[in-house]
Every structure is written in structure tokens, then in C-alpha cells.
């Protein structure tokens, strides 16, 4: 009987650790995705600025 309790506790602890690890991995993946989105947005903004500067330079010469 005592062995069953110990095994039950071990299983619960292992399950809890597994869930915590899974949650941690999901959070890390979300952070990575957010960082990638931010980088993409920054790149798009830079491209737009460069295009705008190019247009302004062309307009000055015409």
C-alpha cells in the first residue's frame, strides 16, 4: 500500500514536471515568434523609409 502511494506521488510529480516543461517550451516559442514578427516589422519599416527617401530624391531631380 505504501509503495503504491509513493509510485502515485512520483507519477504526479513527473506529470507536473512534464507539464511545466511543456509550458516553458510554449512560452519560449511564443517569445521567439514575437521577436521574429518585430524584426520583420522593423525590416518593412526600413524598406518603406528607403523607398520614401528614394522617391523624394527623384522628385528633387525632376
UniProtKB/TrEMBL annotation:
<protein>
    <submittedName>
        <fullName>Uncharacterized protein</fullName>
    </submittedName>
</protein>
<feature type="compositionally biased region" description="Acidic residues">
    <location>
        <begin position="25"/>
        <end position="54"/>
    </location>
</feature>
<feature type="compositionally biased region" description="Basic and acidic residues">
    <location>
        <begin position="1"/>
        <end position="24"/>
    </location>
</feature>
<feature type="region of interest" description="Disordered">
    <location>
        <begin position="1"/>
        <end position="62"/>
    </location>
</feature>
Amino acid at each position: 500500500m505504501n509503495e503504491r502511494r509513493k509510485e502515485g506521488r512520483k507519477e504526479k510529480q513527473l506529470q507536473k514536471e512534464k507539464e511545466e516543461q511543456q509550458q516553458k517550451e510554449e512560452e519560449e516559442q511564443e517569445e521567439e515568434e514575437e521577436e521574429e514578427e518585430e524584426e520583420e516589422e522593423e525590416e518593412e519599416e526600413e524598406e518603406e523609409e528607403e523607398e520614401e527617401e528614394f522617391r523624394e530624391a527623384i522628385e528633387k531631380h525632376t
